Amino acid sequence: MTLETLDPDPNLDTDAFDDDVLAALDAEAYVFHVWGGDWCIDCQEQLPAFGAALAAAGVPADRIERYAVSKVDGRKEGPGVEEYDIEFIPTVVVESPDGEEIVRFVESEDVPIATFLADRLAEIETVA
């Protein structure tokens, strides 16, 4: 099973992404773990734009881990679901290069995934 909904939306103008968002996503060699399902409406709506933001930020593919999730008897199943306690999708976990969880996006927020993560990552950078 694949997670094609994370493929960048080719119709998005990558110049429209805020430079601060792109800079925050590509800072510190963060690793992005992304859980979703191609069958999931929320994933279909949110992940293509997030994939485009990661591409526009220049995040290399080896720092993006895709985990396709299936739904079996109302439960989410797939790689890392239990280990990372994934209940809702899309879920994006951002880790430092040494594997420490830095920030987590779960299912939905008032802003796009890239903006939500960039805002949290910028707050962490300011404190550090």
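Second entry:
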Amino acid sequence: MAGLKTIIALSFVLAIGFLLVILSAALYKQYLTLLVVATYVVAPLPNFICGRAANQDDFMESSGSGLVDFGRFLTGFLVVMGIALPALLAHCALIQYPAMVMAIIGGLLIYGTIISFTMFFQETEEF
């Protein structure tokens, strides 16, 4: 059971992640790094949607696993894109390398916090 300390700690880490991404855009006046926030906020959605849309049957474990795997693939793609996009922008000289590092670290903190929130506050099903 997650308590108040868990919520406060995760909120603090989320705020640090957003601060790093916003500072990477504001300090270097290159606002393309804000795309990382959108990428990491959208990243858990395919996994959630495909997990809910899969047919959960008690008798057949393999039913709907293709849809779940597709959701995991899209989530993985978006997480890798959140790391690769700032690297690509820095390589093309559209942003500076310190902005790239700040955007990647901030984005990973944001995504890690979102995943931690879902893990700590996931409801268990009882039959």
